[in-house]
Amino acid sequence: MLRRSLITAAALCLAVPVVAQTPWPSKPVKIVVPTGPGSSLDLIVRAMSDKLGARWGQPVIVENKPGAGGMLGMDVVAKASDAHTLGIGFNGPVAFAPFLYRKMPYDPARDLLPVVMTTSQANVLAVNADKVPAKTVADFVTWAKAQGGKVNYSSLGNGSSAHLTMELFLAESGVKATHIPFNGSPPAAMAVAQGEAEMTFMVAPALLPHVKNNKVRLLAVSANERPESLKDVPTLAASGYPNVVSLAWNGLFASPGTPEAVVARINADVNEVLKDAAVKGALDAQGLTTVGGSAADFKRVIDGDVKRWGPVIDKLGVKLD
Asked: How much helix, strand and coil, in percent to the nearest 5, is found in the chain?
């Protein structure tokens, strides 16, 4: 009897790890995109989703949830109940928002777990090709100042890298302009193409179709790191504005309770998918530079952005309550 009890107890002990080590994923994985369809974040996730689904043996569901400068979507990730909900975040709702808002629905440092960086790309200064005659940054600044403050600029949302890069450029150049925020890059790019706004700063994907249609002109890139598709566009540093440097990064985040093993699995699989020639080619064609790396690498980028942009935001006096 005692021997049977010991055998039963041993069997139960052996069974516990099996339950604790349930393979991930055990159901479809949702990736929340905090911007609209056709945005750069949306393009990145959809370029990877099928290949990640094949690796994981589960469907990858892409859910667009734009609004509040990306905070609506990232709040879903921060409050997710298990490791099957991820989100693709960017500078705005992760690194900038704590300096812009008195209250947030989540604490980025506490409630969002960096998993892997997907891409990092410079913002591009773009202007309406019909209304703005300038072909260079210097000519544009001269033209814009002559408009007496009657110039609009669009952005993909309040508190985004696009918004803050433009504010920094305006402060450095002395140009006066009115901000028109949109929910995502496609409508912000369309506003410039249609002349509702004369200019914008954003990453290239939503702008490129309008560039091909000769409705939008690209004047400069906000960093020296440029993909092949933007090699012919000069940098802002070379155009006389070395202080206007910004990179719009994005990457996957999980809720803080996600097991380390799951984070490591997602990180490894995303890194492999980013190396895929078809994925890399599709992203590069849109002006997006693939990055990858470890979760720790991604966290260092975020921490660096917080350290660099916090004082800039305070100095500019941009508040979005």
From this structure: 45, 20, 35
